[in-house]
Design goal:
126 residues, alpha+beta, 5-stranded antiparallel beta sheet, 4 helices, 5 strands, 22% strand
Amino acid sequence: MSRGTDLLLRIDVGVGDDADDAEIDDAARALRSELLELDVDDVERPGSGPAPDGARAFEATMIGTLVVTAGREGIAAVVRAISGWLGRGGERSVKLQIGEDCIELTAASQEDQQRLLEAFLARHSP
């Protein structure tokens, strides 16, 4: 349900330097399923599925991308869910982007992740 003040949050999922397209795709699908349970309007997969042979590099980089449409409260819930998702995996990483503002979390401690995510959310609060 659109509230007129919806934001678009782009999420780029990473699962380790040696992960192949199928592993990235699986992680993005699992995270998408988790996010769809939240109060969001939509979670799209602009690059779903492993890249076919001969696909352009741009298409291949979209495999781990999700685009969430939600109000500010929904985006906050998404960011909290992503924080939990990061904590459950060994080499998981994520890049979050709203407009031109982006944050990338890789090997940060749980405390640093929380601090960075809260600062990111604060920049997008009314």
